[in-house]
Design brief:
Number of helices: 19
Shape: globular
Oligomer: single chain
CATH superfamily of one domain: Aldolase class I
Number of strands: 14
Strand content: 5-15%
CATH topology of one domain: TIM Barrel
CATH class of one domain: Alpha Beta
Helix content: 40-55%
Largest sheet: 6 strands, parallel
Structural class: alpha/beta
């Protein structure tokens, strides 16, 4: 038997931190470490596993007591803490294993930090090899996933290792892979172009496990593209609809999908019937030539603006993502992204600066062109990206700051929230002749373990935006207008207003960051940039 310490490194402040939401709801982190929970399910059941999410609480000395193996994972944004944790375990004489996105794509740095067992690729095919190596007494090795595993054999994550009350949302994964081949995306190289999926029965089992924990609320479906295999998505949604009705709709869902969803109203209807509320969509650019050059062809086959409006109009709020710095991009791209988001009535928008990821077609092309940088810069303009763009990086960053400053001025943000809410059809339950909302069978009830009374966050939001907010009069006028014209969407409107608190707060962070870059002696042209508030997304 092994005594294993699983660590999830802290996530830095980013677009996805939601610190203001957590402050309003009293939760400690947004999402649990789904990757580690899945790995834990692949380990022998008689192993003693201690999981510490450093986004929930700090590591203490007692966590190291009696540990035989450290198992850590992380993405690029967690790089620094991941390497520090490996080094600390090695200094304590504890064997180390590391896997996940960053160890898979940047193995040498992880090995140099003290990783004994390097795990590259998906755990279903590599964790059994790790277990066998430890049983054989090996002290190190690299285990790479040569073949893509069938997810029908993947066990349900060990949700029992976490406290659901610590998290704002829960997460599960129903498929991996995406049928598209965008040049900058590493999904194809990591998970393939043929989506692999769990059976509906497996997904229902995972939903049951989360429900039995006592969690109620939002579940993030962490698929690369939930609609990558449409027949499979339909079959799964039909099962989820049935299950939700049986238990009184304990969950609402967020997922990721390609923009062609906007051309499939029946599929949108199934998603909303299953209680999906939000969908993350990679828009990337409003410029068709830029999208074509990046092989984002699914975004140019149909009018992009029409597709996004159709998704929102039929009940799904769009979380949009743009990328600045792609080849072929003309001056003023940031302003065009801002204008497009306003035209599409997208409240919640990311504007990223492009970073080349290992194992992508973009990485290979930039390397062949001599434009790829070695290593990871920690400061200065080169920290924004890892290649030489065709436009000055100072200009790109200035456009990002300017676009996001305008997008997240409170009045502009609330205006988009209003237009998106009024442009969305009423909920099914509010329509004439609608069946009453399903009620859970009392015999199947489980005590809720993540209490967060709706009135407490609501009161905090009303104080922040309705009393001390700079757009407080606009907030109240819009609240009354939504209550009058689309009352069944009032809750969605309030939630989106609450999300804005995270973005407004992050503006201050980016303003300070912009000022630092403007004043840094190494930034020869930085003085040309006026520090303006913005929201900066993580580079992953």
């Amino acid at each position: 038997m092994q005594n294993v310490l699983m660590l999830h490194p802290p996530l830095p402040l980013s677009f996805w931190s939601f610190r203001e939401t957590l402050a309003m709801t009293g939760k400690k982190a947004l999402l649990p470490p789904l990757g580690l929970l899945t790995v834990a399910a692949l380990l022998p059941r008689d192993w003693n596993i201690r999981l510490v999410d450093l986004n929930v609480r700090p590591l203490v000395e007692a966590d190291w007591d009696g540990i035989d193996l450290l198992l850590v994972t992380g993405m690029l944004v967690q790089r620094e803490s991941l390497l520090e944790l490996l080094a600390e375990a090695k200094a304590r004489g504890i064997a180390t294993a590391a896997g996940g996105a960053y160890p898979t794509t940047s193995p040498q740095e992880v090995l140099d930090a003290g990783c004994d067992f390097l795990i590259q690729g998906e755990g279903e095919n590599t964790i059994p090899d790790l277990v066998a190596a430890l049983a054989a007494g090996r002290t190190g090795g690299t285990f790479a996933c040569a073949d893509k595993p069938a997810l029908a054999a993947s066990p349900a994550p060990r949700f029992d290792l976490i406290n659901p009350g610590d998290y704002e949302s829960m997460s599960l994964q129903t498929s991996r892979g995406c049928p598209f081949a965008c040049e900058f995306c590493d999904i194809v190289s990591l998970f393939g172009r043929t989506p692999r999926h769990k059976t509906p029965e497996q997904v229902i089992e995972e939903l049951e496990a989360i429900r039995r924990l006592g969690f109620r609320g939002t579940v993030f479906v962490a698929d690369d593209n939930f609609i990558g295999n449409r027949p499979r998505a339909v079959a799964l949604l039909e099962r989820i609809i049935e299950w939700q009705a049986r238990y009184g709709e304990p969950f609402d869902f967020i997922t990721q999908a390609s923009v062609n969803l906007g051309q499939d109203i029946p599929l949108i209807d199934l998603l909303t019937a299953a209680n999906f509320s939000y969908v993350f969509v990679g828009i990337e650019s409003p410029d068709e030539d830029v999208l074509t050059a990046a092989h984002k062809l699914q975004n140019v086959r149909n009018p992009l603006l029409d597709s996004l409006r159709a998704i929102n109009a039929n009940g799904l709020s769009v979380i949009g993502s743009f990328i600045l710095g792609m080849d072929g991009e003309k001056a003023g791209a940031g302003e065009r992204m801002r204008a497009f988001a306003e035209a599409a009535d997208l409240p919640w928008v990311m504007v990223n600066v492009l970073r080349a990821l290992p194992l992508t077609a973009l990485w290979d092309r930039l390397k062949a062109e001599g434009r790829l940088h070695d290593g990871i810069e920690e400061s200065g303009w080169d920290a924004l990206t890892n290649f030489t763009p065709l436009r000055p990086i100072e200009t790109i960053f200035a456009e990002q700051v300017s676009a996001l400053s305008a997008l997240y001025a409170p009045g502009a943000y609330l205006g988009r929230v209003l237009r998106a809410t009024l442009g969305m059809r009423p909920t099914r339950a509010s329509m004439p002749g609608a069946a009453p909302r399903a009620k859970a069978d009392p015999a199947l009830a489980v005590a809720r373990k993540n209490p967060s009374p709706d009135f407490t966050p609501l009161l905090r939001l009303l104080w922040r935006q309705g009393v001390i907010g700079e757009a407080r009069w606009q907030f109240w006028r819009q609240l009354a207008l939504v209550a009058w014209r689309n009352p069944s969407r009032l809750r969605r409107y309030i939630v989106l207003c609450g999300m804005g608190e995270n973005l407004f707060a992050f503006v201050r962070h980016i303003r300070a960051q912009a000022e630092t870059r403007r004043c840094a002696p190494s930034c020869a042209q930085a003085s040309a940039i006026e520090p303006q508030p913005a929201v900066a997304p993580p580079a992953v």
